Amino acid sequence: MHKLVLQTDFGLQDGAVNAMYGVAYKVEPELSINDLTHEIAPYHIHDASYRLLQSAAYWPAGTVFVSVVDPGVGSNRRSVVAKLKTGQLIITPDNGTLTYAADYIGIEALRVIDEDTERLAGSSESHTFHGRDVYVYNGARLASGQQTFETIGQPADPKTVTRFFLERPTQDATTISGTIDILDIRFGSLWTNIPSSFFKEWQIAYGQTLLVTIEYEQAVRYQETVVFGRSFAQVDPLAPVLYINSLLHVGLGLNLASFAETFNIGTGTEWKITIKKEK
To answer: What is the pTM of this model?
Structure first.
């Protein structure tokens, strides 16, 4: 039996997540069910995709992730199961949720679920809660071994997975450019798409300072000289620091404060960050 991990944008203020747990336990009472998060902002497919990247590869091969951020529920969007090259399974709407996993980890194989036949018994008249009726039901069957990846749904080409646009970071002799992908939400640090390898190629040492500029819609929202530190403790309280985050990308934060709130910084491809060597 494998672990089952749930992610949604449902929150915990009503019974939706609890109902999903109930369906999973009806399939197999001994299942180990875990939560990635249920606090994805409503309809925010990008963040759901990133949080899967943040966690999926750290779980054992065979772990089944159910991710339900599904603004198109009941439409003709596909329901799919992706097998990652690291062995985990993700069952989700095919609406862009698999973008980061496909790009950074790779999808080995893909299956398309038949929503009419592969669903919770007695749920055929409901078309707005596929998280309960399709995704967690099939996720529990996969995790418990009652269903296998090879026998669920029909095979599909992994290249057909729906993806949203991911901006690529760039680097030359003096400038690194990227975007702010997401926040380290609780602490307000910025996580960029700039890989740590860019700093290695520049041979940036801890304690070195770099000029950081953040722009949104071509307007400068932040520009300061910032030290590169091993951790937040390398700088004084409330001081900014560049660091390498847990996914080995460049982060930007404040020691003991929220960078995002302090400087009113958001996330997404419209938020550009450039890092320059000081002259």
So the answer is: 0.94
